[in-house]
Design a protein that fits this description.
The complex is a heterodimer of chains A (about 375) and B (about 425). Chain A has about 375 residues and is α+β, with helices and mostly antiparallel strands. Chain A contains 6 helices and 29 strands. Chain B has about 425 residues and is α+β, with helices and mostly antiparallel strands. The chains are: A alpha+beta (about 375), B alpha+beta (about 425).
Chain lengths: ~375, ~425
């Protein structure tokens, strides 16, 4: 195997593939990166048992030559050293060559690395998914869905299913839902998927967060393909394969209150920065609890207090307030996460009492929903 | 010229029970008196470590934390017993009850020692007489020996109680410091551990007197802010009050155990981890607390010890949650060498009533259905101060059985308060 490649192309691909490679892996060869050269381009592959990423660099693209002098073949090299080597090579092009003894030579300018590789035959075959039953959506929209929901997955393994994001496709609507049982985030978008529907697909939150890092923030299409136990995201250059979580995702829709007793409209940024300030005194302590109290004259009061430190009080002017008076305590962190995820200037918050979940939505009714369970204070 | 009112001189006692566990056993079984006795973790197994020994055993060189086989080698006639925590707990409770009959200003520091502020205890002609009375009373009623240190502050009282054992009463006056305290080696100073002592010695500080006279600036360079505090102590300055509530400031709850042999067997390790998490959960429950930081301690066969911890976003109290994080830490940080001891500690612990309870999406209905009740309580609390209702904890009944199983010194202190 041999080829000469533009270094920046190689760097970008290596970085993407590294997201799937872990130094602690059950199968030793998976700590390596597979490189496969074919006449039309090269493919890098990285995998841990949960996610696998393939990055393809075409030999030629839009009349630009990325790779030359390709002699087909494949090799697995030690991923630990490769990214740094590639990044620090002196010239714009890199020559990579592997011989029959799995010895790899990397040349760039006057630098020459000789590395021990592994036989690519030893590298496990990644499963190939059927591609008939798939749908497409813009990459930037997918990224935004991940950002708006992924943060709410559980970090505790006690209920493993909650460490994933629940995906549902039905009636041309794609819904992402995540909850750690203290808050819930959900987003729905219309997609064109006439012949496809699924429910009960739960993708590990970690997989989606890695995917989000790799996907470009453009409208380029991502093709999504779901089977029983895997999900594949495919772009022109990348194939991202993740295992799905086993088990039943809890039915969350019936847990979301439908009526509300107190309704608040407020500017997102103002509420966010007030809560941020109120949480200063309670930082990292006692669940970061702040308290919201409705006042007269279209004002709500946000207070934070830490017995050893002191208290903070701030009034927030609101656009409108309807319904019953309310005093409610909640985690400032959850609130800030939710407000940041909403990505809209004004939010509507529906409360149904101090001991029940409240719901934050964009004021324009966009189908993003952030739900937070309050903190009961004693 | 106004005359300066002298700050009231305090009189502080430090009561230190002599060889507490061993003495309690002797009180239960007087035949043991005068014999070399060791209370050890588990006499049948190698991990049996001497927790306490009688003076007779100490004469042969038996020391606390010594392996039992080592102790037996030094003292062939050694009688070894398993600890009987329920007995010690009861004895401790009785002792602290006696102390609090004299003054409410009693601060237990562990099962077998505590401070008293007797400045205002006027029934006796002088503190020395009071000390004699107390020592006699504990000896007559409980058949237990103790040493008492009398001094103007906690630090000196602690140093004083250490000077004469058993059944000593030592008065340490400030003016006597250069003669009595300063010649002592720096290792003997309370508050200075092995590492600090080594550090100080490398700066030519070998006695408490050396420390007392050392330049503050230099000390701060070596020990940070602690330097000044320790120098003050050496000079007999310590204005910490005797705080009866100090025992309730718990920041961490932990459990650790030595394995019967060094092991890499994952099943054994898993079993022990499970047990430790269970211990932590039980104690967390007792205190009606929760914590948001889990620490794992691993001691390897060569005594090399590491601690690793993880800060959490939410407070946890359940065994599964604690175990989950601890196992995670183990997976990440265990270098696969044989393990000798494991410990799990829940840190950043606070009482639940200070934390508030984060409601759960899947169970909030249960709490919410009581909302009206909570509102009523809140209104009444606002009117009458502290919550006028007492929560009947469901595990109240479970508690009596727990007491027997829990062996942690700090938990004794709660009992005394209850």
């Amino acid at each position: 195997m041999k080829f000469i490649i533009q270094r920046d192309q190689l760097i970008a691909s290596v970085q993407d593939v590294m997201k799937a490679i872990s130094s602690r892996t059950v199968i030793p060869i998976l700590s390596g990166m597979k490189i496969e050269a074919k006449p039309d381009g090269i493919t890098l592959t990285g995998s841990d048992s949960d996610i696998s990423i393939e990055s393809y660099i075409p030999a030629e693209e839009n009349e630009m030559v990325h790779i030359e002098q390709i002699e087909p073949g494949s090799i697995v090299l030690q991923a630990k050293y490769f990214p740094d080597i590639v990044r620090k090579l002196p010239e714009k092009t890199v020559e990579i060559e592997a011989d029959d003894q799995s010895q790899i030579t990397i040349r760039s300018g006057k630098a020459k690395f000789s590395l021990n590789g592994l036989d690519a035959e030893e590298y496990p075959q990644l499963p190939r998914l059927q591609t008939e039953d798939s749908f497409e959506m813009p990459g930037d929209l997918l990224k935004s869905m991940i950002k708006q929901t992924g943060f709410a997955v559980s970090t505790m393994e006690t209920r493993p299913i909650l460490t994933g994001v629940h995906l549902k496709l039905d009636d041309n609507k794609l819904t992402f839902t995540a909850t750690d049982s203290h808050r819930l985030a959900s987003r729905e978008v219309p997609v064109e998927a006439e012949n496809t529907s699924f429910t009960g697909v739960v993708v590990p939150g970690k997989s989606l967060s890695e995917l989000n890092k790799i996907l470009a923030d453009t409208e380029d299409k991502v093709e999504i393909n779901v089977t029983n136990n895997q999900i594949l995201f495919r772009t022109k250059r990348i194939q991202f394969l993740s295992r799905l979580l086993d088990g039943n995702y809890p039915e969350t829709s019936r847990l979301i209150p439908e009526q509300s007793k107190t309704v608040l409209h407020v500017k997102t940024k103002e509420l966010l920065s007030t809560i941020d300030r109120a949480s200063l005194l309670a930082k990292d302590e006692r669940n970061n609890v702040v308290r919201l109290t409705t006042q007269e004259n279209q004002v709500v009061e946000i207070t934070g207090n830490s017995p050893e430190v002191g208290t903070v009080t701030e009034d927030v002017a609101i656009s409108s307030l309807e319904g019953e008076d309310l005093k409610i305590s909640f985690s400032s962190k959850y609130m800030m996460d939710a407000l940041r995820a909403i990505e809209y200037d004004e939010v509507k918050i529906d409360f149904t009492g101090a001991m029940r979940p409240f719901i934050i939505r964009p004021a324009d009714g966009d189908p993003v929903l952030q739900l937070i369970l309050p903190v009961r204070t004693y | 010229m106004g005359q300066q009112v002298p700050a009231k001189r305090r009189v502080i006692f430090h009561i230190d029970m002599n060889c507490f566990y061993a003495s309690v056993e002797m009180a239960y079984n007087p035949k043991l008196k005068g014999k070399p006795l060791a209370i050890a973790g588990n006499p049948e197994e190698r991990k049996g470590i001497v927790v306490t020994s009688s003076y007779e055993a100490r004469k042969y060189g038996v020391k606390t934390t010594m392996n039992l086989w080592e102790a037996r080698k030094k003292c062939p006639g050694l009688i070894a017993m398993r600890p009987n925590f329920e007995r010690y707990r009861m004895a401790s409770k009785e002792i602290f009850k006696m102390l609090s009959e004299i003054t409410p200003l009693v601060q237990p520091v562990s099962i077998d020692e505590g401070y008293m502020d007797v400045t205002d205890a006027k029934e006796f002609a002088n503190p020395i007489e009071l000390a004699h009375h107390l020592q006699q009373k504990i000896s007559e009623e409980l058949d237990l020996p103790c040493s008492i240190g009398i001094a103007p502050n906690k630090f000196l009282a602690k140093m004083a109680s250490d000077m004469k054992k058993p059944m000593g009463i030592t008065v340490l006056r400030k003016r006597e410091l250069p003669k009595v305290l300063w010649p002592l080696p720096i290792d003997d100073m309370y508050g200075i551990g092995g590492k600090t002592a080594e550090k100080l010695k490398s700066y030519d500080i070998h006695t408490i007197g050396d420390l007392a006279l050392k330049d503050v600036y230099q000390l701060k360079q070596v020990l940070g802010i602690n330097g000044e505090r320790l120098k003050n102590r050496a000079n007999g300055i310590d204005d910490r009050p005797v705080d009866p509530d100090a025992v309730h400031d718990f920041k961490s709850i932990g459990s650790s155990q030595t394995l019967s042999h060094d092991t890499t067997n994952e099943k054994e390790i898993q079993t022990l981890m499970n047990q430790l998490a269970e211990n932590v959960e039980r104690r967390v429950k007792r205190k009606q607390a929760a914590g948001c930081n889990v620490q794992l301690m691993i001691r390897y066969h060569d005594r090399k010890t590491i601690t690793r911890s993880r800060k959490l976003q939410t407070y946890i109290e359940k065994k599964e949650d604690i175990l989950q994080i601890a196992m995670d830490l183990l997976d990440k940080h265990w270098n696969l060498e044989p393990i000798r001891l494991l410990g799990i500690t829940l840190q950043d612990v606070d009482e639940k009533r200070n934390i508030g309870q984060q409601l759960d999406l899947f169970t909030y209905e249960r709490e919410a259905s009581k909302e009206q009740l909570h509102l009523a309580i809140e209104a009444l609390s606002a009117k009458y101060g502290k919550n006028p209702f007492k929560q009947l904890s469901a595990d109240n009944e479970a508690k009596s059985s727990e007491i027997a199983r829990t062996s942690f010194q700090k938990d004794f202190l709660d009992d005394y308060k209850r």
